[in-house]
Amino acid sequence: MARDTVSDDSEDAGPASDEQPALTAERAAAVAVERLVRLTSKDVQGVTSVEPIEDGWLVEIETLEDRRIPSSADILAPMQAWMDWVGRVGHAIVDLGSPLVPASPGAEPGIGGFSIMQADNAEALHELMRGHPHTEQGGTIECFEYLTVNKL
């Protein structure tokens, strides 16, 4: 909530003359809103009160500082990107995987997660990874081939 005082002799009160008209509560509220928007660039939610004071008006205004509750679209868009990608490459997913965090002292947090994919060759794998949600959001993906080790 912001508070602003607007006096009868304000430059926004009206044209200068010998006898200025009295600043109305409505005009005082409008002037306060204009000033707050100009000062903060925030959207005004509403004027909560206008009270006369000794030399003008006291105007209280509500403004939204930030969005604390994300919209449904903000929440669902990343999930939809994953669903679209999985829908396209689902036949090649062996294990969708999981995020990874370092578990030993000094371990580098360079690998954020893993998935296990099956493809005929590296080119086919790279085609499957095209459009992956991580790369679409500016991340990187490194692909490694799983090598079978013969047991002794």
In short:
It is built from four helices and five strands.
Structural notes for this entry:
The chain contains four helices and five strands, in the order βαββαββαα. It has 152 residues and is α+β, with helices and mostly antiparallel strands. Strands 1-3-2 form a three-stranded antiparallel beta sheet, with helices on one face. Strands 4-5 form a two-stranded antiparallel ribbon. A hairpin with a 2-residue loop joins strand 2 and strand 3.
Structure characteristics:
152 residues; three-stranded antiparallel sheet; alpha+beta
Tell me the β content.
15-25%
Bulk shape? elongated
CATH H-level superfamily of the largest domain: Dimeric alpha+beta barrel
Note the gap between the termini.
74 Å
Q: Count of DSSP E strands?
A: 5
- Radius of gyration over all CA atoms, rounded: 31 Å
Enumerate how many helices there are, as a single number. Answer: 4
What is the highest CATH level, the class of the largest domain? Answer: Alpha Beta
Quick one: biggest sheet?
3 strands, antiparallel
| CATH-assigned fold name of the largest domain | Alpha-Beta Plaits
Element-by-element helix/strand order: EHEEHEEHH
- Percent range of helical residues: 25-40%
Average pLDDT number: 83
- The number of distinct structural domains comes to 2
**Secondary-structure class:** alpha+beta
Poorly predicted residue ranges? none
Largest sheet strand order: 1-3-2
CATH architecture of the largest domain: 2-Layer Sandwich
